[in-house]
Amino acid sequence: MIWVVGAGICRGQITERGKEMLRKADIVYGSRRAFELIDFELKEKRILGRFDNSVFEEIASEGREKEVVVLSTGDPMVAGLGRKFGKMGVEVRIEPGISSVQLALAKLKVDLTEVVVVDCHARDFDSSTLDFFKYRHLLILADRRFDLTKLGDRRVVVLENLCMEGETVREGFADSVEIKSDYAIVFVERDKEVVE
Amino acid sequence: MIWVVGAGICRGQITERGKEMLRKADIVYGSRRAFELIDFELKEKRILGRFDNSVFEEIASEGREKEVVVLSTGDPMVAGLGRKFGKMGVEVRIEPGISSVQLALAKLKVDLTEVVVVDCHARDFDSSTLDFFKYRHLLILADRRFDLTKLGDRRVVVLENLCMEGETVREGFADSVEIKSDYAIVFVERDKEVVE
After folding, report:
1. Sign of the torsion formed by the C-alpha atoms of A132, A137, A141 and A143
2. Is any Cβ of chain B less than 8 angstroms from the Cβ of A95?
3. Which chain A residues have a beta carbon less than 8 Å from that of B16?
4. ipTM, 2 decimals?
5. pLDDT tens digits, residue range B142-179?
6. How far is CA B104 from CA A70, A119, A171, in A?
């Protein structure tokens, strides 16, 4: 059995349930960054540098014999690891964690039901994404390579490195702000002229 | 100062940070359901039957003098209490919690960046919501009064009472399934014929 457990983004953000699963696990896999969020002892810890298919196959094979936890920063179902074990013939369950999306919404005081969350981490910005501005604000998970000028001259709030060193929140126009971190979230308000 | 702290949906789903805030608070406000999720001592606990403006004003007034926590089931920024203190002249901070949306996505193994989350709790279904099917799956927060036939003959998954007594997950067609709980989430797949 494999549990993919969300570690949250800040220290102390893991849930009691998640903590219990980590403590019971025979093996815990995770990135260095994920393990930095955890301050208690584990039976066996395996630090992963990369998450590619061969790694997922190895974990799946362990999961057929043992209680395996994959520790995921944030939430496994927010641009996360939760879907990676799809067809590997092993039972996988997901335990949610606090995501960077939730931290951003908490700072912005905007509700999840007012936004569309878009994953532009190492991914192209689909032009149809702009259609959403008719209905909703956008919350874009972005990295340094994300091209803000695609948002035109809209006002944006760029939240970077939430709960990490160098946390910043900056406001400005999309064509004049720069993304400096690979852990960035860009909030863009919906178009106002459209009446629902 | 007021902290709105997410309690999660299941027992043991509060984060360590949230727990610490509750322990330190002079007063904790919350619904009976929210307090049922908490199994540790609090300095002062005030159970709220209703959340109307006069209640929020009372809490805001306490918050100017004391450390006040409002315990919110789920996440305060998911169809939540987080925005209620907007213009009441008191500093409000939000501490995220696990929402029913996250539980549903974990069960469905669907990522947040593949859906649009719609709040139809005691609220009308906006016909423009159907436009989202061109781009995304829908995850609808619903209650017994929600009219599933608005979704046509689409396939739906109805998740009810997550982490409560009577938890069920049922699949079927929108025009033949019934919502039996006021804590329901309806997952509807996007339209397939559209190429992005």
Report:
1. positive
2. yes
3. 12-14, 16, 19
4. 0.95
5. 999 999 999 988 999 999 999 999 999 999 999 999 99
6. 19, 19, 33
